[in-house]
Each structure stands twice: as C-alpha cells, then as structure tokens.
Design brief:
Helix content: over 70%
Shape: elongated
Order of helices and strands: HHHH
Largest sheet: none
Strand content: under 5%
Number of strands: 0
Number of helices: 4
Radius of gyration: 15 Å
C-alpha cells in the first residue's frame, strides 16, 4: 500500500511503526533506547508511545480491509 493512498489513521500508524522500528533497531544494535532518551523524564508518556506503536502494528495488519483506505483508493482509480 502506497503512503499517499492511505487514510490518516494508517499514515499516522506507518510513522509510529517507523519510529518504533528505528527505536528497536537502536536498542538491538547499541543498547540505546531513543524513546526513553527523549521522553525519559515522563515515564507515563513513554508507556503511551509504546502502546501507540503496538496499536499501530495492529492497525497496519488490517490495512487492506480499511474502508477509508479502500474508498480513497477507488476514488483515485475512477478519475
């Protein structure tokens, strides 16, 4: 699915998955947690970011079945 043909929810989910993947790559390679380094003073916010990344993964699993994305894709094909 191309980023330009996604609904707003899936665009935000894609960005969160990118940030989450980058963070886990840094943790695995260098034992350095980017999210904790940026938001470490606010543990509740760090936890919210992790929950949002997890929910983003779930949202992207159903991306092909999203009626908003499907309508947007079909609308572009009709033109």
């Amino acid at each position: 699915m191309m980023m330009g043909k996604m609904c707003g929810v899936h665009k935000a989910a894609w960005i969160l998955l990118f940030v989450g993947g980058l963070n886990w790559g840094l943790v695995g390679a260098f034992n350095w947690n980017l999210v904790d380094a940026i938001l470490g003073q606010w543990p509740a916010v760090v936890r919210v970011v992790y929950v949002l990344v997890g929910l983003s993964a779930i949202a992207m699993l159903g991306g092909e079945k999203c009626c908003m994305c499907y309508d947007k894709l079909m609308g572009e094909k009709k033109m």
